[in-house]
Fold this protein.
Amino acid sequence: MSSPFSRADVARIATLARLELSEAELELYARQLGGILEYAERIQEVDTEGVAPYASTLTGPSDAALRDDVPAPSLPREDALQNAPQGDHTSGTFVVPKVIG
């Protein structure tokens, strides 16, 4: 069976993601993505008759390992700011580099 992902598909996705891929990478990723889709198709063929929807591994005695979500005091602001490379103690904030326009 031929790969459901062509090199052109991978190139288009790479362009959208602003990735530069070599010809070898285009070929490799087309094969890998095609393999993932083929595997997903095979999984769809598994007989799940009698399996409860949304079955969870957290059923039974192991549930006791989860703790209740209870509010607790957090690290005092001054202690957190002492560890910050550019903490502003006056305003009580962290100074971070601008990342968006």
Summary: The chain is about 40% helix and 5% strand. The first strand starts at residue 87 and ends at 88. The CA atoms of residues 35 and 95 lie 45 Å apart.
